[in-house]
Amino acid sequence: MRLLLDRTGDVATAMVPICSQDGFIGIVAAAVVHDAERLRRDDDLVERLSGIADHAAIAITNARLVEQIRHQALHDALTGLPNTRLLEDRVEQALHAAAREGTHGALLFVDLDRFKSVNDSLGHQKGDELLKQAAARLRGGVRAADTVARVGGDEFCLLLRNVTDAESALAVGAKIAESMCDPFDLGPDRVTIGASVGVAVFPEDGESFQALLKHSDAAMYRAKTAGRSTG
Q1: Which of 20, 57, 73, 219 could form a disulfide with 198 if both were Cys (CB 3.0 to 4.6 A apart)?
Q2: How far apart are CA 230 and CA 123, in angstroms?
Q3: 44 is annotated as an active-site residue
Q4: Lowest mean pLDDT: which of 5-14, 26-35, 130-139?
């Protein structure tokens, strides 16, 4: 507090804590730059500061609750990844940016192979753990500016911004598919599943989220049917 007073030029300060059910949030303070005695034993000031602190605690708690609700509405509860709703918003933003800047992007549709057999043989808890590990691998396979979303039970989408061309997007898809071939450690069990990946490049393959999703989904099914990892 002495350091704070020195930095602000105050000679005295009165403060009360801002607290919620979760604990300490911050402080409300009143300070003077001269005549420090004005703040000594001022019960009315403390009461007023306490009232402000109570209102601040309610406002901050409500803001956190709104943010929590918003996060839950836009993210998958199991993996923490963006859901389809948030992905659509980010794809539309990327489409507008690409049109404005004359750049390209890609939407990759990833379907985990043999996931149902793991879920059926080892149980849903192990299946959920597999999905969380798969989500982590997908995040690790793209740049920070890209988006990984869960759009179905064992289906994910990757939004790649500023790709050079279709070959670059296909190379990322092949890298993602390869990473999914490494075994997953599920406690005493180690399983290998793999993944099929479909690629849509924008604006060539579509200029809307739905068009790109449809194109990449179709490409994924072609790859799965042909026994290839990407298509």
Answers
A1: 219
A2: 28
A3: no
A4: 5-14
pLDDT of residue 153: 93
Residue 116 CA to residue 37 CA, distance in Å, equals: 73
Which residue ranges make up each domain of the chain?
A: 2-74, 84-226
CATH architecture of 84-226: 2-Layer Sandwich (3.30)
pLDDT single digits (tens) 193-212: 999 999 999 999 999 999 99
Exactly one of 76, 146, 154, 217 is catalytic; name it: 154
Reported as a pLDDT band with limits 50, 70 and 90, residue 32 is confident
Output Rg (C-alpha) for the chain, integer angstroms.
26
pTM, to two decimals = 0.78
DSSP 52-117: HHHHHHHHHHHHHHHHHHHHHHHB-TTT--B-HHHHHHHHHHHHHHHHHHT--EEEEEEEETTHHH
